[in-house]
């Protein structure tokens, strides 16, 4: 930790890796009921707090009590968050269906006529098709898609908007 | 090791900046006092009518009260700075209680004496809003300084830390203001000075989470 305080990234990385097992074991002992993913989240929360508070470590004092104080604090915070969330959530066996009309449940069932959609996509201009493929099918962000295509974010937004409008129009006429 | 955690560690280590370990809490409390005290002295000296030092020095109760107020400010600041260091000994949090009790006892004794001397009039609380702007001005620099210094620590108990910090600020402000209020009725000191310290501490406790919550390194994903 002393090396980490001096800015040695490699020593810091080794330290954090060594801490993972210790913190994970502590979390598991206290919150045995948590899913592995939740335990990992909590471990990362502790590591992040260690990172934030690294200036508070006094190199002349033992390290583990310092670490455990942070770990206990973050675990208590996490338990409070869990209780707060649980107090506002009502478990439900079945999610209620708010609308029964077919249009509103389209996303759950998948699009009905995949062939018509593929044909409509093929008829789109190259720019609009590419924008929709990257952002709607591959779920890229605007920034990522802009980097991939070499166009501006604004141009992409326009292409997606026009492409969706064209698809909507084409699919309406094929119904 | 989980891949996400591995990546997480890489990102933390990649942006690592050197940090200077914090000085011991007592040294940080002294540093804060070195910022707060000259400012309070300048404001009181330039804006208020000071009492005669000879007259004030001869008043044993005034001297005790001022010593207790100053000690409360210093010990509350020490406890606040200690509370942001992981693994601290919790007994340190009791440290300000002794001077605070002495301060309260001295003011309480003054109230009793005023009551015996003047009857019910000695315990009459008058509104004293004129003092409020000056009290607020006096608290600005000590308040900003202690929050800035505390934010370098670990917010393990933000409510408690800020309540102690508010007590320290209110005490140091009172210490200064008392040099312009030496003949004030004790009940006024109890109601307005100690009352303000209590309100400020409660407010600090309430705002602790918002002012001193865990502030994580920018650009790092925070696990939900």
Strand and helix map with partners:
The complex is a heterodimer of chains A (175) and B (224).
Chain A lengths: L1 H4 L3 H22 L5 H17 L10 H26 L17 H4 L4 H10 L2 H12 L4 H8 L3 H22 L1
Chain B lengths: L2 H12 L10 H23 L5 H6 L1 H23 L14 H22 L12 H20 L7 H20 L8 H27 L12
Helix pairs in contact in B: 2-4, 2-6, 2-7, 4-5, 4-7, 5-8, 6-7, 7-8
Structure explained in plain terms:
The complex is a heterodimer of chains A (about 180) and B (about 220). Chain A has about 180 residues and is mainly alpha-helical. Chain A folds into two domains: about 1-90, Rna Polymerase Sigma Factor, Chain: A (Orthogonal Bundle); about 115-175, Arc Repressor Mutant, subunit A, CATH 1.10.10.10. Helix content of chain A is about 70%, strand content about 0%. Chain A has nine helices and no strands. Chain A has helices spanning about 1-5, 10-30, 35-50, 65-90, 105-110, 115-125, 125-135, 140-150, 155-175. The longest helix of chain A has 26 residues, at about 65-90. Chain A is elongated and about 75 Å long. Chain A starts with a helix and ends with a helix. The model of chain A has no long low-confidence stretch (mean pLDDT about 80). By secondary structure, chain B is mainly alpha-helical. Chain B is built from eight helices and no strands. In chain B, helix 2 (about 25-45) packs antiparallel against helix 6 (about 130-150), helix 4 (about 60-80) runs antiparallel to helix 7 (about 160-175) and helix 5 runs antiparallel to helix 8 (about 185-210). Chain B is elongated and about 75 Å long. Classes of the chains: A mainly alpha (about 180), B mainly alpha (about 220). The interface between A and B is large, with 39 and 36 residues.
Summarize the structure.
Chain A has 175 residues and is an all-alpha fold.
Largest interface between protein chains, with number of residues from each side: A-B, 39 and 36 residues
**General form of chain A:** elongated
Q: Output the CATH class name of the largest domain in chain A.
A: Mainly Alpha
Overall geometry of chain B? elongated
- The low-pLDDT segments of chain A are none
Average of pLDDT of chain A = 81
